[in-house]
Write a structure and sequence with these properties.
This protein is of the alpha/beta class. It has a single domain, classed as Vaccinia Virus protein VP39 (Rossmann fold). It is built from eleven helices and seven strands. The chain has a seven-stranded mixed beta sheet, sandwiched between helices. The radius of gyration is 19 Å and the shape is globular. The relative contact order is 0.12.
Amino acid sequence: MIRPEAEITEDMILTHWQLEKELTQKLLESNPEKRWEIFEQSYSQLYRDLNWLNDLTKQTRSDPTWQFAIWTAAIGLPPQTIYEIGSGKGDLIAYLSKQGFDCKGTEITRERGEQHVVNQPNLSWGNSDGIHLQQFEPAAHYNVVISCQVIEHLHPEDLQAHLRGCAAILEPKGRYIFSTPHRFTGPHDISAVFKYDLAQGMHLKEYRYSELVAALKQVGYRQICCPLPPVVQRLTQFGLQPQRWGEAYLQLMLGLEALLALIPVLSLRRTVAKALRRLLVFRDNIFLVAQKI
């Protein structure tokens, strides 16, 4: 996300919009055989032509312990091996490596990733297509695979292949933990600036909980739940099981989502969803933990 105080001109926004529209068309029209090449070229062009995006991207808060609390609570304690898909500027994976986890960050383009994090212990870097991870990593090698704001950038045809790729490099009972913007509070890409109701830019598809839970089950994941918000996590101190609370929280999200889906006008649905978010009973982002069998 761009810092609110960042100085952005109208020309910068229009240039960004035109480029994203052109690149989005290429990405959506790409065939599976050429897709990695086209995605790598497109994202390299985006960050090369609009290099101010890297400069204006929000930096980690002064207290990353607070910012990444929900991630560390979901992951658990080290030692564990963690593989991140789409590490961006590397804030999350660098923080986890400092906590003692054995980490690998990855990106589809060399315009992001390793160049932003230098000489970090417990952290290695690589490139991948973000889909066929078994072609880049050993089978059953990692305890945890994570992605933060990545799935919405994948071609919609590749969702199940992506989930299978994550499962392939996870050890038995390993977990895929990820966040992605919820469609009902979006769009969450540059489309929002131009008042679109659905993403038109390089968020190729923004999802619902129900879609992702169904896809995870089809691939064979089990024990799917939501990581608990930090406030709710405190309840586990009183002997309440985090897994059960996470499953109950997911059912709450699915129920609210089903009710919101009954609102036919997208702008009104978004308004109601954001009102529920302000009441702390809905989220802008889907956040899921899924365990490999």
